[in-house]
Description:
Elements: E1 2-5, H1 11-19, E2 23-26, H2 37-47, E3 50-53, E4 73-76, H3 82-95, E5 103-106
Parallel strand pairs: 1-2, 1-3, 3-4, 4-5
Helix pairs in contact: 1-3
Amino acid sequence: MRLLADEHIPPAYVSALDGEGHDVAVVGDEIALGTEDTILLAYAHQTDRVILSEDTDFRGADPELEIDAHPGVLACDTAASPGEIATAVRRIEAFVEDFSGTVLFVPGDWL
């Protein structure tokens, strides 16, 4: 899976996802820290990446943010371990073909 890890995603999560074979771009490396959410959504759409973020704006908390037109959001619980996140993403990838416009919670019930 191609992912865009938002700036607050711990590096250990990125390492765990890389270890599972996912292509993870990181905000701060690929796109500037502090970039507005609308720009992150556009970047994710242009590069066909699912956003991995704990930011509630991507879950509908910001009514100004049009979250319907994106390749998908994985709402991350950063209280989970990196292994739990990697396992959940692996399972999601096995069962979900099209993430477009969806928000899924990780780890959620994917463990």
